Amino acid sequence: MERAGGARGLAEAGLGGGGESGVPAAGAVAAVLPAGGCGERLGGPTPKQFCPVLGRPLISYTLQALQRVSWIKDIVVAVTSENMDMMAAIVQRYRHQRVTLVEAGTTRHRSIFNGLKALAGDHPHSRLPTPTVVIIHDAVRPFVEEDVLASVVAAARDHGAAGAIRPLVSTVITPSADGCLEQSLDRAKHRASEMPQAFLFDVIYRAYCQCSDHDMEFGTECLHLALKYCHTKAKLVDGSPDLWKVTYKRDLYAMESIIKDKISQQICVVADTEEDAECIAFLQGLLKKELEVQGTSVTLCPNGQDLQKIILGDCYNFVCINMKNSDFRPPRQLLAGLASAAPSPFYPVAVVSVYFLDSQNVSLSEKMKEVMEMKDFAKEVKKQNVFFYGVLIHFPQFLTQKDKTFPSLWIFFTRKSSSFSGKLGSIDDRPKRSSYLDSALGFC
Ligand SMILES: Nc1ccn([C@@H]2O[C@H](COP(=O)(O)OP(=O)(O)OP(=O)(O)O)[C@@H](O)[C@H]2O)c(=O)n1
Ligand SMILES: O=C(CO)[C@H](O)[C@H](O)COP(=O)(O)O
After folding, report:
1. What ipTM was estimated for this complex?
2. Which CATH number does 7-257 carry?
3. CATH number for the segment(s) 265-441
4. How far apart are alpha carbons 174 and 192 in whole angstroms?
5. Beta bridge partners of 191
6. 38 lines ligand 1 (CB under 6 A)
7. DSSP element (H, E) containing 281
8. Ligand 2, atom nearest to 108 Cα
9. pLDDT per residue over 211-244, tens digit each?
């Protein structure tokens, strides 16, 4: 195994892979991410896996997608020695977990082999527990979802090897030496092999150990190695369109658009109580119903529970429901969590903070005081690229009337771009419901 630079440093910093060294965890799953390429086809001085997308390195999105999956116990990333420090800094900055760094090889297959060696019990430099199944995934395929990972892992357990495939976009032809068409493949009968792929660890490690220099140098297909050296026929699993590999510069632009689209479809409702579960569930149902058409996902976070996990999951849209607090403590806590998670500096976070006030007991001057405080708070947090909207709802019997006429908050969640301008105008589009929104303002 080549020098596992940085891995020890990370382990000491508490960022290394978990598990007891050398003890194989029955049924465990690990992942190897080759990230040692130079991105020639994309061009430019920075290897594509480190190119910033919305201010964050591409590889950080891929790591995030994998670390979200709790059953992946270790993630081994193969990086060149010159990029080792930068990679360690990325792991630290974005708080990636269960990550171990090893040195990349001169080809993709060599990088993968180095990653596998770190997981192989019989290898002198292995430190991590040997998994039953290993996922191999390119560092430059950032949009891998848990269901695809689960499908390839399940198929690998049954068949020894499995990989995601997609229909071909273009027809594949064989040119002759003189540049003429020799053969054209029937597109319907062929598929594009994508990633992730998964293998019984024993199968793929044995395959790499036997691999010829020619395969190591020119091979592009891990499934083929399992077939050639271990006679293991991989099961092919349909993958999603987002599995494509960032290869050319235009792919970075596509990636940015997809991220923005995903961001706009995630809302987290943070409540400062879980006492009235029924009420919160009602609110969640209402939001879901209003937003269904856009395919938006609403996560509920009573009492700020699991908030850090949600933040790290790249949520940029929050609704703080304040039932117990009338100050800015809950949004402040949320913003502190967001600041430490280092969200993209190029994409604003939106926080809608909703306060329920008893209109019978609040005077006009108190009301105005609240409004001014919200404005000041909005101004303050705008400097951190946070759009803060304060909503005061004066509604004495809110809890009892919720199922009849709960005030609609839908207007705030229709974010499609990085700007909210004009969205507040939607209040007027819904005159029947707007009567419950006594004051709705706050960002500047
Ligand atoms: N010596 C290498 C070469 C490639 N890779 C990784 O393998 C994945 C897929 O390879 P590819 O898209 O070909 O990446 P590059 O080799 O960087 O791109 P190019 O061929 O355009 O130079 C990438 O995550 C890349 O970093 C690697 O770990 N070690
Ligand atoms: O899709 C793949 C395997 O099926 C690989 O991502 C692909 O082969 C990598 O090849 P290259 O490094 O030449 O782009």
Report:
1. 0.95
2. 3.90.550.10
3. 3.40.50
4. 16
5. 167
6. yes
7. helix 277-291
8. 12
9. 999 999 999 999 999 999 999 999 999 999 999 9
